[in-house]
Amino acid sequence: MQARLAGMPRRAAGRIEPHEWADGRTVTFRLKVRAHGQRYTITLGTNHAGWSMERAQVELEQIMGQIERGTWEPPKKRAAVANELDRDETVRVTAYRWWQQRKTELANNTQLDYTWRLDHAVRYLGSDTTAELDPRRVDDFRQQLVGLGLSPRSVNMVLDLLAQILDDAVGYGLLDANPARGRRRRMKVPKSSRSFLEPDMVIDVLDAAGAWERELPEHQRYGRRAFLATLCLSGPRISELIETPRGRLDLHSGQIVLGKKTEAGIDRTLELSAFLLDELRGHLAAVPARLRETHGSELPIYPTRTGGRLNPSNVRNRLLNGTPARGKRKPIKGVVQRVNDKRAAEGRMLLPARVTPHTLRRTFASLCFFAGRDLRWVMGQLGHEDPRMTLAVYAQCMKRSQIDEALVWQLMRFADETDARGHERSFGPTNDPTRSRRSRR
Q1: H or E element, residue 124
Q2: How far is CA 336 from CA 235, 315, 316, in A?
Q3: CB–CB of 171/28 below 8 Å?
Q4: pLDDT tens digits for 202-256?
């Protein structure tokens, strides 16, 4: 009797084994099952596909029940059927399955960014069979993107998204390895100049925007100067500033509360300098009363003529860089050209070759350095958890031996700080006890 019991297979058992990926956000759930004297590994799926410990526990209990009733089929028998079904799955199906699982985790602006990348991937690879993708096909796709005129950075952004999609294909067993991963698949991106505006350039930009406003009809004389001042002197992203309503601006406390952009930027509070507060007061007084009465606190801080939100492309292309002549329409000089015309006539250095809203964010970081602001405070204002961008700007600023410190202080001084800044203070963060908490280490 003892010998017969010893020869019998061990009783069925099972457990859940979650596996965390290196990306820190993906978890694959597997079941380890022992039945009929053998051990089986059953891959259920990832958390992006809706799997969780609770759902895996339900699946495990169902399998254990089938084993006890003798109706369970080992995974090897089912794998052949599954592989037969997946063999012809196209990249379009794989991509849109990934997108449905992923998009709810993303902010609206990030969804828009991912959408154009996804469109390129599906347009040129959508009919390809996912299981047959290899590095050569990915390289051919990369050259197709180059042929469209996309920059190396944009090409790499599309390939990065494709790599995320194919990571799921690997997890589901459609691919043994991800052909879109690896540096050889990427293009070399020229190093950016990472420019920012000098303090006197900031004044010229604001003056040019103000002069432009005065040329317009009375109902359009608002927004341009104050909008650029906010980008230069408080560092929000252009999308954050456009979407922020009037109800999130408090002139008494000198703060703007921004909405969600990234995890580091959720409900971020910006502190506003005394100079910027003056600009905002003038701007709010110029906004037509009909818009304030109609929209109340939900009116954007910088509204359109109808009370809507500005278009980021219009800010980048029309406000900053102007528009070319079209048909009978005359070209419109943007702020950058207006400033360069003025500075060229005066024999002064022109603005950087390419001025974008991100240039103005970097300008804010540079002014913070010259004003002696603490690195951690600046990162909080910019909404960054990674200090590399802030440190890169600081490294550029450290090379400067001369700067108009009085002008910097005029732009960056907060209402609770003294009007005059001592000339003996050096640039960068200091331990001066007379300075506010923003400038202490």
Answers
A1: helix 108-125
A2: 19, 12, 11
A3: yes
A4: 999 999 999 999 998 888 888 999 999 999 999 998 888 998 999 999 999 999 9
| Cβ–Cβ < 8 Å for 307, 287 | no
* Segment 253-302, tens digit of pLDDT: 999 998 654 444 456 899 999 999 999 999 999 999 999 999 999 999 99
DSSP tag of 316: I
Q: Enumerate the β-bridge partners of residue 42.
A: 31
Are 36 and 136 in the same domain? Answer: no
Classify residue 25 by its DSSP letter: S
Q: Which parts of 172-286 fold into alpha helices (H)?
A: 199-215, 224-234, 238-243, 274-286
Looking at the chain, how many residues does it have? 441
Q: Which of 154, 165, 163 is nearest to 182 (CA)?
A: 163
Helix (H, G, I), strand (E, B) or coil at 65: helix
What span, in angstroms and rounded, lies between the C-alpha atoms of 29 and 17? 6
Last residue of a domain, one of 128, 157, 185: 185
Distance CA 334, CA 322 (A): 4
Structural domains of the chain, count: 3
Residue 25 has φ and ψ, to the nearest 5°, of: -125, -10
Q: What is the residue range of 161's domain? A: 91-185
List the strands of the sheet with 38-46, edge to edge.
13-20, 27-35, 38-46
What distance in Å separates the CA atoms of residue 60 and residue 32, rounded to the nearest whole number?
A: 9
Residue 243 falls inside a structural domain? yes
Give the distance from CA 109 to its chain's centroid.
8
Three-state secondary structure call for residue 317: helix
